[in-house]
Amino acid sequence: MDGDVKLFDKYFRSETGSIAVPLAVSMTALVGVGGLAIDYGMSASLKAQMQTAADSAAVAGASEIALAGADLKHITAVAKSFADINMTDDSVSTSVSMPDKSSVSVALTKTFDPPFASLYSDGSIKLSATATATRVGGAKVCVLALDESSEKAISMSKKSKLTAVDCGAYSNSIHSNGIEATDSAVLSTTLTCSAGGYSGSSLNFEPQPVSDCPPVADPLVGRLAPPIGSCDHTDLVIEAQTVTLDPGVYCGGLAVKKHSVVTLRPGIYVIKDGKFLVDTNGRVQGENVGIYLTGDKSVIKFWSNGAVSLTAPKDGPMASLLFFEDRNSPPDRVHQIKSDEARVLLGVLYFPRGTLRVDASQKVADQSAYTSIVANKLELDVQPVLVLNTDYGATDIPVPGALSGLSGKIVLSK
């Protein structure tokens, strides 16, 4: 046994190194190959992680295109946040660009120092991953009636007119009379689509509606309600005054009466357990205002000689939403626009549980860059001319993607 050890030792201590040197070289080569394999595996894993991060960031950015009004600053912030979620490495650099108005490109880069290769040379490797997400397809939506079964989910009578400029009107009701236009009412759109059927003559529709359309999902179903704090005002009635109000919680509602002029500062107004009333000879005006209606009695009532001029917020929890009805509200409540001076209603009128009734005698919303209506039901009576424009480029108030014509699929490419 001792002799064997001495013999083995002799070989390694040999002056010629006829065995020791080749063995050492072989072991070094094996270690090098193994190390390079580890380096390669680490770089491949990191690159795959970067690609996943780039993909998710591009898709997230493309999802924000319409809501952000194609604002690169907002889209960049959203895309980078998604890249950060998927990449915990702070040394990864992220850049975001928009090749066109419907696409978002994301590029991630990182300098990787392979632990084994770096022992022998500089060995730095520049890793990169790119992805572009593009929205394709979709159609502009000006009116969407969410009721799935009732007759007359969209109803027009007498001399009422609804003109949807370069956009469509959709009813999700499968009832055979899901859309109805009678008397001399006229519904004019680029497309009128009913999940069920419709009634009315060829004179009532421009063009004729299409039946048996697939229902359109609520485009705002994912939008969270704004936070609600304690009451800032209770049963506030303004009469024969000119005042400016601040955002807050208006418990018991807000009533504007008799020759009052009320200006609403930008922000969110929570109308809780009471009406938002603009009565005879009252006037309400405001820019970047969101009205959230919560509680059993919270509806809008704009009477004939009242005047309303409002635009929706351009950012925050109610971005694009001029009116937002609490989804827990009682069904079939009626929100009414009877005002003959409600020509600026810029944004989305969202009443997912209620009916919006427009029974003015003059034009409504015609001076708005855009107006979209998403309601359980929509009724037009008497002789209003409801004009729903789609001049999205004329305002910085965003349009939800599913309404703006950018609601199609997001296609991802590397």
Order of adjacent strands in the largest pleated sheet: 15-17-20-23-25-24-21-18
Radius of gyration: 32 Å
Low-confidence sequence ranges: 1-17
Number of strands: 29
Estimated helix fraction: 10-25%
- Counted by DSSP, the helix tally is 4
Q: Main β-sheet, in a few words?
A: 8 strands, parallel, barrel
First-to-last CA distance:
65 Å
**Residue share in β-strands:** 35-45%
Q: From the helix content, strand content and strand pairing, which structural class follows?
A: alpha/beta
Mean pLDDT: 87
Q: How many distinct domains?
A: 2
Give the overall shape, derived from the CA principal axes.
Answer: globular
Describe the structure concisely.
The chain is of the alpha/beta class and 414 residues long.
SSE blueprint and pairings:
Layout: H1 2-12, H2 20-63, H3 72-86, E1 93-97, E2 103-112, E3 125-135, E4 141-145, E5 154-156, E6 161-164, E7 168-171, E8 179-181, E9 186-188, E10 191-194, E11 198-199, E12 205-206, E13 233-239, E14 242-245, E15 248-257, E16 261-264, E17 267-272, E18 276-278, E19 283-286, E20 289-294, E21 300-302, E22 307-311, E23 321-325, E24 334-337, E25 341-358, E26 363-364, E27 371-380, E28 385-388, H4 401-404, E29 410-413
Parallel strand pairs: 4-7, 4-27, 5-8, 5-27, 6-9, 6-28, 7-10, 8-11, 9-12, 13-15, 14-16, 15-17, 15-18, 16-19, 17-20, 18-21, 19-22, 20-23, 21-24, 22-25, 23-25, 24-25, 25-27, 26-28
Antiparallel strand pairs: 1-2, 2-3, 3-29
Helix pairs in contact: 2-3
